[in-house]
Amino acid sequence: MAVMRWWLFGLVLIAGCSPDGAQSVTVYCSHDRSHSEKILDQFEQETGIRVDAVYDTEATKTVGLAQRIRSERKRPRCDVHWSNEPLRAVLLAQEGLYRSLPSSAGVGIGARWRDPQNLWCGFAARARAVAIFPPSATRVDAPDSVHQLADPGLLGKVVIADPRFGTTGSHLAILRARLGPDRFRRLLQSWKTNQIQVASSNSASRDRVISGEAWIGLTDTDDIEVVRRRGVEIDEGFLAGDGVILLPNVIALVKGSPHPEEAEQLASWLLRSEVEEWLAASPSRQIALSHDAVVPEGGLGIAQLDPIEIDWVEAASQLRDAVFEAERILLNP
After folding, report:
1. pLDDT category of residue 7 using cuts at 50, 70 and 90
2. 101 partner at 20 to 30 Å CA-CA among 58, 121, 233, 239?
3. pLDDT band at 333 (very low <50, low <70, confident <90, very high)
4. Exposure pattern of 136-162 as b/e (b: 16+ CB <10 Å)?
């Protein structure tokens, strides 16, 4: 009988309906669950549409769910993809796994943050930043460039997250696109020579800075802000010499998904300026991209950061090689 129940449940999922007949939508989300779950709960309350959310693990940020969408190409289970960075979304769009968003979705978000064919749209960004151990400020100047992470005065005292996952890989891909392959590999080798540490994630990098194991940690603004609001003493700096990099969250619709109408409703709802304002005011201190979103007191705004323009397609084309070279140079003994 148990086998029969599971068989019937599978038929219901294939048919695109929830078991109880109620409206539902499935979202694959790599944004931190502690922040995104509250947003999705609010959507449920406002619309009555149940959200079935699948979250990435901290150790495989972004990569795990992107691979899952690929593996389900012939029978998609995901309706809405909420990625915490844009480059892997660009690749999924190029592979034909997304369909167009509604034309009205994210109307206040500029062209620099969205796909020209409207296959994905960025929102609620975070900036790449350095976490700084306060006592270290008397020993070294805070770096304003990735090249300064190889300063001999920081020997063994800089940490980055595993480049194979999450926003660190995206950051390296953007650097490779800007520097070119040769200069990029020389940068990685200089980090290796300076005994740069590699932690499992951005939050783990930040934690090594908090403990004093490292003085400087390459991470994201949200990872720094969330512990500051708990009363942890940690400083923040931006690599202004390179140009500040903003990495938006991304919303996309999976082609051939089971609940297309509910998916469009959720995507449009998430791309409202109100959602960006909620995330900007939350402990993650996201950076609103909509021109009509209000920056909360103590928040970060685009005008304040003056981020560099990024060719997302070019950066995405560098992702595989950037990650491979970082793994070869930084992770191999």
Report:
1. very low
2. 58
3. confident
4. beeebebbeebbbbbbeebeebbbbbb
Distance CA 282, CA 226 (A): 9
pLDDT tens digit sequence for 277-296 = 999 999 989 999 999 999 99
Q: State the pTM of this model.
A: 0.90
Q: For the CA atoms of 323, 324, 328, 331, what is the dihedral angle to 10 degrees?
A: 40
The H or E element containing residue 249 is strand 246-254
Lookup result for tokens 């140079």: 329
In the chain, how many domains are there? 2
Residue of 96, 120, 107, 219 lying closest to 163 (CA atoms): 219
> Rounded distance, CA 324 to CA 168, Å?
13
Whether 156 and 70 have beta carbons less than 8 Å apart is answered as no
Asked if residues 277 and 294 have their Cβ atoms less than 8 Å apart, the reply is yes
Taking alpha carbons only, the member of 279, 267, 161 closest to residue 209 is 161
- Please indicate, yes or no, whether residues 23 and 162 belong to a single structural domain of this protein: no
Dmax over Cα atoms in the chain, in whole Å?
69
| CATH number of 296's domain | 3.40.190.10
Q: Provide the residue type at 64 as one letter.
A: G
Amino acid 23 reads Q
Query: What residue numbers bound the domain in which 159 lies?
Result: 126-245+315-331
* pLDDT for position 142: 83
* Cα(85)–Cα(152) distance, integer angstroms: 32
Helix 181-193 and helix 166-179, axial crossing angle in degrees, nearest 10: 130
Q: How far apart are the C-alpha atoms of 8 and 314, rounded to whole Å? A: 45
Note whether 213 and 266 are same-domain residues.
Answer: no
Cα dist from 135 to 20, 140, 142, 226, 231, whole Å: 57, 10, 12, 20, 16
